[in-house]
Amino acid sequence: MKLSLFSLLSLAIAMGSYSSTSMAQDLQQDLIKKGEYLSNAGDCVACHTSENGEKFAGGRAVDSPFGPIYSTNITPSKTAGIGNYTYEEFEQSLRHGIRADGAFLYPAMPYPSYQKITDEDTKAMYAYFMHGVKAVDVEAIETSLSFPFNQRWGIRFWDWVATDDGAFVADPKQSEEHNRGAYLVQGLGHCGSCHTPRGIIYQEKSYDHANKSFLSGADIGIWHAPSLRAGNNTNLEHWSVQDLMDYFSTGRNYYSAVAGEMTDVIQYSLSHLTKDDLHAMAIYLKSQSGQKSAKSEDTSAPGNTTKLLNSAKVDINSGARLYLDNCNACHFTDGAGAPHVFPQLDDNSLVNAENPDGLIHIILAGARLPSTTNAPEAIEMPGFGWRLNDKEVATLATFVRQSWRNNATKVDADEVKEIRQTISSEVLNKSAPQVY
């Protein structure tokens, strides 16, 4: 069969049109895939998904000094989410904390850090949330703070004082990898939201490494977010780049294991990043020096504790006895734990935190490591709240905080009682032997 010149031209045009359409679709899919990756880097799912709720449908409470702030539905639902947002409205919400209706978002949404996200990445995230996320037509719980914190217009003035309002600027003196790590840590990763101390109006004291307060450690509720600056008074001084990468991708490394709020960060964010990005973040963090520790270290203290525990000649009601009965099987007499399995208690940042509430919570309720691609086994520490009373927990916590190289304050039974009251009986008793 012979085709006329007209038919050949028509076929060529049709094939060209199909090719262009196919190429456009491929580009759109690539953009959506990139946006999904960036949303993982930004840890969007952890905050915008409630327990047992639909992905990105909101309703998760973020504790604040002013009351619970509930995350919003950011699915492309046109009735309950952001389905009607234009790109410009999405960008204003993401990077400046202003909703489509002009209302100001509470800074529980880390837009002060997201201001550093590039235009290119913001567009990719918009493509993902509009075309790669399932729409959920369910309204999230509305935040209802007491006066005057319910007056969102006042956040305008907070923004003027408390935010930098600037995009990320690469340091020409540093490598491309170093700058990539800085971009992820300062911007999408918003690490400073937890690890940077806050000022009198609850603003982060710094949003980048130009100020030594950046990533120098802070408390988030009952949990201590340790300094990420690699000075002699931090654990990072002894962590290698690989140690950091292991922690980011699995929630555990040779020295430590994740607990508290950081568990979700590992589960839903960092464990999904590429090795190259994790390496870049580690390189950047290792470059940030901290203040040198002024305290002198008693080199005999670790051995003294280990010798005491090895002897087993301890008082029946002592912290040492409680440790041997409840902790020794996993953390051992030298407090070193087991690499990549059980965290080291000796010189542990959570153990030595000024506020002991996080340690108390773990002793009472236990902890569970996240299951990730590189470490699928979700190892769980049992809670001891069902078998230890408040005085015993206080005695045990005090022993751990003052043994080996640890040098922290004593724990009082009243502190334990206060934390116990915040934990449900179901959680407290989950490790208790079952009677049938």
Descriptive notes:
Helix content is 41%, strand content 3%. It has 436 residues and is mainly alpha-helical. A two-stranded antiparallel sheet has the order 1-2. The protein has a two-stranded antiparallel ribbon with strand order 3-4. Strands 5-6 form a two-stranded antiparallel ribbon. The protein is globular. The mean pLDDT is 89.
Fold topology:
Blueprint: H1 5-41, H2 44-47, E1 61-62, E2 69-70, H3 87-96, H4 111-114, H5 119-131, H6 155-162, H7 176-188, H8 192-195, E3 218-220, E4 223-225, H9 241-250, H10 262-268, H11 275-286, H12 301-311, H13 319-326, H14 328-331, H15 357-365, E5 367-368, E6 380-381, H16 390-401, H17 413-420, H18 425-428
Helix pairs in contact: 1-5, 7-11, 9-11, 13-16, 15-17, 16-17
Distance between the termini: 82 Å
- Please report which band the strand proportion falls in: under 5%, 5-15%, 15-25%, 25-35%, 35-45% or over 45%: under 5%
Helix content: 40-55%
Instruction: Calculate the mean pLDDT score and round it.
Output: 89
Low-confidence stretches: none
**Rg, Cα atoms, Å:** 25 Å
- Largest sheet, strands/sense/barrel: 2 strands, antiparallel
Secondary structure: number of strands: 6
- Can you write the helix and strand succession as a string? HHEEHHHHHHEEHHHHHHHEEHHH
Shape: globular
Total helical segments: 18
- Spatial order of the strands forming the largest sheet: 1-2
Helices and strands: which structural class? mainly alpha
